[in-house]
Amino acid sequence: MTLLDTINSPKDLRKLDRRQLHELAGEIRYRIIDVVSRIGGHFGGNLGIVELTLALHYVFNTPRDQIVFDTGHQSYPHKLITGRRDTFETIRMHGGISGFCKREESEYDVFNAGHASTSISAALGIAVARDIKAENYRVVAVIGDGALSGGLALEGLNQAGHLKRKLMIILNDNDMSISTNVGAMSGYLNGIIKGQAYNQAKDLARGIMDRIPVVGGKLHGLASDMEQLFKHMIVPGTLFEELGFKYLGPYDGHDLDFLIDLFEKNKDYNGPLLVHVITKKGKGYVPAENKPIWSHGVTPFDIESGEVVKSTKSSAPSYTAVFAETLIELAKRDPKIVAITAAMPEGTGLDKFGKALPERTFDVGIAEEHAVTFCGGMATQGMKPIAAIYSTFLQRAFDQVFHDVAIMDLPVVFALDRGGIAGADGPTHHGIYDMAYLRIFPNMVCMAPKDENELRHMLKTSFETGHPTSIRYPRGNGFGVTMDAELQSLPVGKGEVMREGEAGVIFAIGNEVWPSMQAAEILAKEGIEVAVVNARFIKPLDDELITKYCRPFARVITVEEGSLAGGFGSAIMERVQHLGIRNVDFHRIGIPDEYVHHGAQDVLRAQYDLDANGIAKRVREFLRTTTPMSLGEMAEEIWKDVPEEVFRRMHEKGHDSDHIDKVKKPDEDPDLAALNARGATLGEVAEHLFKDVPEEDLARLPGSDHVDEVVYGLRRTATK
Ligand SMILES: Cc1ncc(C[n+]2csc(CCOP(=O)(O)OP(=O)(O)O)c2C)c(N)n1
What we know:
Strand content: 5-15%
Bound molecules: thiamine diphosphate
Number of helices: 34
Number of domains: 5
CATH class of the largest domain: Alpha Beta
Radius of gyration: 32 Å
CATH topology of the largest domain: Rossmann fold
């Protein structure tokens, strides 16, 4: 039995002595290395925060005292000692525990996260609520130096320094974001750390002066003035203190005993306190210490060698890699192209771009809002900026897309990686809202490639639209399709017919096009032929294709890896309505009104019927169980514009009553009922209704829209 096995909550932790705590730290580290090496996950940050987490839970009275972890990717040690030791092996798996803090999961998880830079604002909110309720507990925010680069964190600091509430902020500084941390704040923190040598010299000098008898005190005062001067010269400002915080640090964040004493001494400091600790990403596992960028989030690896276990999955190139290579190709030809990332060079592929064209690559830190406005500024000067930002993180910059780009119709390109279901990171990371939140802005062009080859052409096209343009593509590998050597410009707002079929039409977008094609093939084997359209564009939509396939009484299925609310399917429905086409029956496949849990992409896609089998099942059910309208309504619709006079003439000729009666009472016609039951096509229904009407009368019916429909339906049936 290990010590960790005895820790069911921080209460058990508090029973341990210091020596045992050290032992526990080792066990926690080992447990994380063991589990993450097998199932992957966030890694380096977790190894770096073991001592800090133990010291916090040891000193603070959790869960009454509230600890808010920023982003939450570094919460594994916290999870292990707050009741999730036995489920730890399920972390990030479907049905397992989350890789981030989640209130639904534990009373120790104070505030849900996944996106960075929220902890200070959330903790301040908690502290203010505490004060209003006149309660008395402690609030701690734990934030990394990377997350501190986010504007939101600075906004939180700004108010916290002003409000002066009792709030401890722990800056966990490992000099790393996912990549090396960037920006002036990062430089400032480095300056403080370098200033440590000065602090030590200062302490030494103080000690010497104190030992000089009598004049020691005076000298000390003089030294204190000198110290301020010296400090401002060597330490680059005391920013936090000037913002209203008491600043303590920098300290060694792996010195467990020291941290415990420090927190014990300062836990009741009555005001905003910033404790700056220095940690090492990957601490205690040499390959992770040596490769901190790799260690941030890992796939399974061999513990002995630290080598990544090669995946047996698709050898097709990843969308990210194709994006990066194509962008380099385009930028080499066009000196105006500049690429911007918000702290995600590796994730977006811009690390490669940065190596090829460093002077045209900008990492702005975790600052998506700034990234977008920065792009807007560049676009006003004729540059062609492309912001490569994960779909979910661009949500941060919704207003900047609107206010600093779209409303000025600036040609900024948004390359949205991780569009769709992102996988193990879960609800905070799925990129399922971008189609809904971008297509609403006038001037936007929004596209999604069906595969990695089309991504190349779309990327070229995106720089030619002259408008703000988004391309969304999924996490992971492409379909392994043949890649065209030459880049092509795609006609904006034009879709592509992939397949014809009479029973219905699937309008699919992005990575759902090929699964829709596979679904159509599954259905074809059952005798159900559906057409498939690759829409390519969410905006503008292809009116010609919509008019052709969304005829009255057509059965239209839309498929998207995105939210149904406001998404691609909604866009098609809106357009059909706008074009004045009536009586189209829709069925939309996508993400319903709920948050998608974490889990493997294929598992989640299957759950939402977004794989070939799921699409085929949904189309089959839709075609079988529905008709666009009830037969009675349909017949009424068909006959609605036929003038009374024609009815009368048909009646006089004596060959109408039967079927007109049937039309009036369709439910009494067993043949119609049978047609209804098997989900017959409009053509089949029309043929049945008209079967007794002689050719000459058909010819005499007025050429109204509805009659055209009937004739069109008859023709389609005839050509089957
Ligand atoms: C808004 C937002 N943008 C980007 C990310 C991706 N991301 C996750 S962790 C991280 C780096 C965080 O660095 P830091 O806070 O220093 O924590 P560390 O991993 O170094 O401990 C980034 C950029 C995110 N989670 N949220």
